[in-house]
Design a protein that fits this description.
Low-confidence stretches: none
Largest sheet: none
Mean pLDDT: 94
Radius of gyration: 17 Å
Structural class: mainly alpha
Order of helices and strands: HHHHHH
Distance between the termini: 20 Å
Number of domains: 1
Number of strands: 0
Strand content: under 5%
Helix content: over 70%
């Protein structure tokens, strides 16, 4: 499969997802902490290396998410916002929401936690998909 990856778009989508997460989890921090069992003391006791691994690993994971989404866009010939939103939604529903639901269910976590975590992924994947399409059009137009 000959897929032209716009690495700048992938990086922009990954960074956007990180920023969205910062806002999302600030808004939902109290219920998220309650449902996960994470305390403020636990968060404060994380070392700089722990934080670097968590945040750095997250950005790498987000980059991979949108790198793969480029292949899905290519396979389904996504060139517009509607297609980007549809791909993001179906990828989210089949591969994110279900995984989060199953994992949380087996761990005995609240369905509210599933809504918080999977909601974040839905919003982020839609916005990231839009970024991919918008930036791909700019690259295509300039070549």
């Amino acid at each position: 499969m000959d897929v032209k990856i716009n690495y700048g778009a992938v990086a922009a989508a990954a960074i956007a997802m990180w920023v969205i997460g910062t806002v999302w989890y600030n808004i939902f921090s109290a219920p998220w902490m309650m449902y996960t069992g994470v305390t403020e003391e636990m968060a404060k006791n994380m070392s700089g290396m722990d934080l670097a691994i968590v945040y750095g690993g997250s950005v790498v994971a987000f980059f991979i998410t949108f790198y793969v989404q480029c292949f899905v866009h290519h396979a389904f010939k996504v060139t517009d916002l509607k297609g980007a939103v549809q791909v993001a939604f179906w990828n989210w529903l089949g591969f994110v929401a279900m995984v989060v639901y199953v994992n949380n269910s087996y761990q005995g976590k609240s369905f509210v936690l599933t809504l918080i975590d999977s909601g974040y992924w839905l919003v982020s994947m839609i916005i990231g998909g839009i970024i991919l399409v918008k930036m791909q059009k700019k690259v295509t137009a300039s070549t």
